[in-house]
UniProtKB/TrEMBL annotation:
Record's keyword terms, sorted: Signal
Name of the gene: ACTL10
Top-level taxon in the UniProt lineage: Eukaryota
InterPro entries named in the record: Actin (IPR004000), ATPase_NBD (IPR043129)
Family: Belongs to the actin family.
The name this protein goes by in its record: Actin like 10
Signal peptide: 1-29
């Protein structure tokens, strides 16, 4: 067992930094120092890939109340999202200027196609503005800033120097640029201009946790973190906290 944030960092060869994860079910901002997760400074957002897929379906049905769109399988919606959607660097400006919508069509493979316009950049926006879906928590850039703020001041600059992105929902075009821009703005607006976040966005970050896990499992000293079936049967669940805390 290991923190997914720690494994994401390991995939880049780092052991200290801020892991910003946006996967299928949830988003996290987790500070890691010397391989240990800072749980009290970890923040969670209940908006991620699955939520965005449902939102995209709702947007498409609202634009064209077609029975076909309402019955599209989840896999088709996910393909639409991955191939056509992107993060806007100026959401309000793009939203109110149809000339900047960049419509595109996506073939469903059954002879039908779906046309997307503003839905392309409206779909991922709830990660940055959860209020669009009725959530009260702030967006992921703010949570990332809070995570940095909640670690000791002596560590903030070091962790900010390695902000590792992980998870499939970070793969939207424009995601890295938008997150970096808003995180830097948070630092400036809150008197932390000395923090200059450096984002690490590897091409394979969609599977960063798996990659990091395979790397950690190969470490010689990782064997002391193993718990065998025999150990569990002998000591019970209390051993979990002793071994993995």
């Amino acid at each position: 067992m290991a923190s997914t944030g720690f494994l994401a960092l390991c995939s880049t060869g780092a052991f200290s930094g801020l892991a910003v994860e946006a996967g299928a079910g949830v988003c996290h901002a987790t500070p890691i120092y010397a391989g240990h997760s800072w749980h009290k400074a970890t923040f969670r957002l209940e908006v991620a890939g699955t939520t965005l897929s449902r939102y995209l379906r709702d947007l498409l049905v609202a634009a064209c109340p077609d029975l076909l769109l309402q019955t599209l399988p989840r896999k088709a919606i996910t393909q639409l999202k991955k191939r056509c959607c992107y993060v806007s660097l100026d959401f309000e400006g793009d939203l109110h200027n149809p000339a900047r919508h960049h419509p595109t069509s996506f073939c469903l493979g059954n002879g039908c196609s779906v046309c997307l316009s503003s839905e392309r950049f409206r779909c991922p926006e709830p990660i940055f503005q959860p209020g669009l879906l009725g959530h009260t928590e702030p967006g992921l850039p703010t949570l990332a800033f809070w995570a940095l703020q909640n670690v000791p001041g002596t560590l903030r600059r070091r962790l900010a120097n390695t902000v590792v992105l992980a998870g499939g929902s970070t793969l939207f075009p424009g995601f890295t640029e938008r997150l970096e821009r808003e995180l830097e703005a948070q630092c400036q607006q809150n008197g932390c201009g000395a923090l200059q976040p450096h984002l690490v966005a590897k091409p394979g970050r969609g599977t960063a946790v798996w990659t990091g896990g395979s790397m950690v499992a190969s470490f010689h000293n990782f064997q002391r973190h193993w718990m065998t079936r025999a150990m569990y049967q002998e000591c019970g669940s209390r051993l979990v906290h002793k071994v993995f805390d």
